[in-house]
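Hello, quick one for you while I still have it in my head. Could you read through the record and tell me how the tokens relate to the sequence? No rush at all, and the record is pasted right below.
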Amino acid sequence: MSDNNLPSIRDEAWRYADAAVLERLSPDTFDQWKDVDLAPGETRRHCMVVGSDAPELHRIRIKVGAGARAELFIVVAGDDYTRVEVVVTVAEGGHFQCGGVTIGGGDAVREIVTRVDHSAPDATSHQVVRAVHWGQATGNFLGRIDVGREGQRTDAAQDFKGLLLERGATTNAKPELEIYADDVKCAHGAAIGQLDEMARYYMASRGIAPDVAKKLLVRAFIADALAALDDEDEQARLFDAALTVLGDAA
């Protein structure tokens, strides 16, 4: 990618990114994609915890073969700009499952960006993303679903919720649907709010310490993003990664 073609916040897919970081990254960084091809009928799952004290950009392209199932579960918890970008093409009868969490404080931007192409019939996808931020941090989800004319009987959904633990934190959501088929079931939803004060009061009245109560409420909040992960060890690992970050703010 040439310097003239580097992404910027003027591009819709990068509109909430950290502009200062994008300018510092090498052009070669934006050309580094991980390609994953699933054979017809194959099932493959990948769980990842990403983020550090330096900028990270993870770009993944997934081709889901006919009748195959791809599962991706992500926790984004770095102290610097971190972006996970996933482009998925789903063949006939295939399924894509995604569960994602962005969590942290400071002033970092953490984002999950997905684009799912349903150009084949009878395919499904389900995405659940949760964002938990405090300080001056920002959590983003940009999710797009494209249903082509041949994507009849597509069943696709996105569900995003953001939780702000302190004033100054920000969450941005940009769900998109572009549909050209007429026999589909597609939905998306987005909501942003704060911790349930009544729940915190109730837990305090039962003798639960404030830091423990916060962790329990946040764990319940992000549980939806990992509910489809049918591996107790991996689910626990991702939960622990998210809650370890929360420990600094509890």
Remarks:
- The first strand starts at residue 33 and ends at 38.
